[in-house]
Amino acid sequence: MRRSERRTREEIAYIAYHFHWPHADLVDLTHGERRSWAAEIVRINTSATGQGAAAWNG
Question: What is the pTM of this model?
């Protein structure tokens, strides 16, 4: 599997796990949109827990 394919799968899995969005919707997002949503998940989790979290590095 190419690195770009692996990265796409990681982004999709991460967002799907947290937001429960359908696979088809996530596949339609651009790489930049998926990265933005992943960063937003990190921000939400950090805010909710009051602890720092590592930035999405997918």
Answer: 0.76
Contact 10, 31 (CB under 8 A): no
Q: How far apart are CA 8 and CA 16, in angstroms?
A: 12
Percent of the chain with pLDDT strictly greater than 90:
69
Please provide the size of the chain in residues. 58
Within the chain, residue ranges assigned H as helices are 3-19, 23-28, 31-49
Nearest to 8, CA basis, from 53, 29, 17, 20: 29
Q: What is the DSSP letter of 54?
A: P
